[in-house]
C-alpha cells in the first residue's frame, strides 16, 4: 500500500481563530522564559525567528478523533459493530495494533499465532476503517498533516483563570494566566495517498465540521475557546488509473482489490472494487502520475468534496447490507 503511488489528494487550507484559541506548549516553554504565562501557546523556530504555530500532530489528533466519533455514531445507529469502523487506539485490548496483527499479540480468528509477524497486507485488511487511513503503531497511515504557520502578524492576549471552591464559592486556587491567539492567518496542507473514495469522504466530513465549528481545537473547548474559521483554497486529485476523457476519479480499490477485508462471516463488507469511484467535473491534466484535477476557490472545492462525502455514506450502506444479509 505504500510501495506504489496509485492516487493522491492535496487539500490546501487557511485557518483563522474565531475567538481565543490555545494549543499549549508544555511546561518547558514557560520554564525557559518565566515572563510567559503559566500556559503559553506552542512555539517553534522557523526562518530564523520564533513563531507560534498549529502543530500538524494537533490537527491530525483532532481530525482523527472526530472521524472516529462519526464512524462510531453511524455504526451504533445502524446496529452493527462499531469497533470494525473505529477501534479505541488508546485501549490495548481493543486497538487494532494489539488485536490484529502485531508481533506480540494473536490475531483475531486465529489467523496467526502469538509471535507471528503478519504482512502489511494482513495488517491493513484486519485494521478497522479509521486505522486503515490514519494508521496505528504497527501500520503506517495514508494521511499527513503539515504544521500550520502564520502568513503575517498574529495577535496574542493573556487571560486569567481561577479555581472555585465548590463549598464556599470563593477562589480556591489561582489566578493563573494562559496565552491565547485571537487574530492571525495560518496556512497548512493535508495530503492523502492510496486511499479509497470512502476514506477520503470521512476526512472531508470532519473538515466540514471544523469549518462549521462543530469541531473545536486545543485547550478550553468547554469555556469558549478553540473555534476556527477554515477556508479550503485548493483541492488537487491525481490518479494513475483515471481514463482520459472521463470525469471519474477511481479509488485505490480499483487498482488493488486485495486491500479490502475478505468476505468473512461477521466482518463488514466495504464498498466493492467496481464501485470505488466518484464522478467529478473539472479539467483533467496529464502528468507523470496519470491524470490530475485541480479545484480552486471555495465554491469549486466544496463542489468537488460532495461526491466523496457521499461515497462514505454509500460505504456505510454497503456495510450494513453486508451484516444484515
Helix-strand blueprint:
Layout: E1 7-17, H1 27-32, E2 43-46, E3 49-52, H2 56-77, H3 96-99, H4 120-126, H5 129-134, E4 143-145, E5 149-150, E6 155-164, E7 171-183, E8 186-193, H6 197-211, E9 228-239, E10 248-250, E11 277-279, E12 284-286, E13 291-296, H7 298-324
Antiparallel strand pairs: 1-8, 1-9, 2-3, 4-8, 5-8, 6-7, 9-13, 10-11, 12-13
Describe it.
The structure is a single chain. This protein has helices at residues 27-32, 56-77, 96-99, 120-126, 129-134, 197-211, 298-324, and strands at residues 7-17, 43-46, 49-52, 143-145, 149-150, 155-164, 171-183, 186-193, 228-239, 248-250, 277-279, 284-286, 291-296. By secondary structure, it is of the alpha+beta class. It has one domain. Strands 1, 4, 5, 8, 9, 12 and 13 form a seven-stranded antiparallel beta sheet that branches. The two termini are 30 Å apart.
Structural class: alpha+beta
Characterize the main sheet: 7 strands, antiparallel
Principal-axes shape call: globular
User: What is the helix/strand order?
Assistant: EHEEHHHHEEEEEHEEEEEH
Determine the strand fraction and express it as a percent band: 25-35%
- Summed up, the helix count is 7
Task: State the separation between the terminal residues, measured CA to CA.
Answer: 30 Å
Amino acid at each position: 500500500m505504500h510501495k506504489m503511488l496509485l492516487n493522491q489528494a492535496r487539500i490546501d487550507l487557511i485557518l483563522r481563530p474565531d475567538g481565543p484559541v490555545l494549543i499549549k506548549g508544555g511546561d518547558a516553554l514557560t520554564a525557559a522564559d518565566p515572563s510567559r504565562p503559566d500556559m503559553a501557546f506552542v512555539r517553534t523556530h522557523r526562518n530564523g525567528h520564533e513563531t507560534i504555530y498549529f502543530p500538524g500532530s494537533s490537527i491530525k489528533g483532532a481530525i482523527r478523533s472526530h472521524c472516529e466519533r462519526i464512524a462510531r455514531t453511524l455504526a451504533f445507529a445502524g446496529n452493527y459493530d462499531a469497533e470494525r469502523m473505529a477501534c479505541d487506539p488508546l485501549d490495548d485490548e481493543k486497538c487494532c495494533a494489539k488485536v490484529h496483527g502485531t508481533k506480540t499479540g494473536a490475531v483475531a480468528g486465529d489467523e496467526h499465532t502469538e509471535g507471528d509477524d503478519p504482512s502489511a497486507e494482513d495488517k491493513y485488511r484486519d485494521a478497522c476503517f479509521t486505522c486503515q487511513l490514519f494508521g496505528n503503531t504497527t501500520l503506517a497511515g495514508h494521511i499527513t498533516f503539515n504544521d500550520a504557520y502564520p502568513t503575517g502578524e498574529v495577535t496574542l492576549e493573556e487571560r486569567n483563570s481561577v479555581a472555585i471552591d465548590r463549598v464556599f464559592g470563593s477562589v480556591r486556587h489561582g489566578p493563573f494566566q494562559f496565552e491565547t491567539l485571537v487574530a492571525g492567518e495560518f496556512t497548512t496542507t493535508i495530503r492523502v495517498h492510496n486511499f479509497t473514495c470512502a476514506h477520503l469522504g470521512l476526512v472531508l466530513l470532519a473538515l466540514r465540521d471544523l469549518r462549521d465549528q462543530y469541531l473545536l481545537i486545543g485547550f478550553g473547548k468547554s469555556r469558549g475557546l478553540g473555534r476556527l474559521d477554515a477556508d479550503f483554497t485548493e483541492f488537487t486529485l491525481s490518479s494513475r488509473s483515471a481514463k482520459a476523457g472521463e470525469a471519474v476519479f477511481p479509488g485505490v480499490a480499483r487498482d488493488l482489490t486485495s486491500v479490502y477485508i475478505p468476505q468473512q462471516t461477521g466482518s463488514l463488507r466495504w464498498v466493492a472494487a467496481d464501485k470505488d469511484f466518484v464522478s467529478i467535473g473539472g479539467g483533467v491534466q496529464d502528468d507523470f502520475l496519470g491524470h490530475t484535477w485541480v479545484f480552486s476557490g471555495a465554491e469549486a472545492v466544496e463542489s468537488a468534496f460532495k461526491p466523496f462525502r457521499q461515497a462514505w455514506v454509500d460505504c456505510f450502506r454497503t456495510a450494513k447490507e453486508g451484516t444484515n444479509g
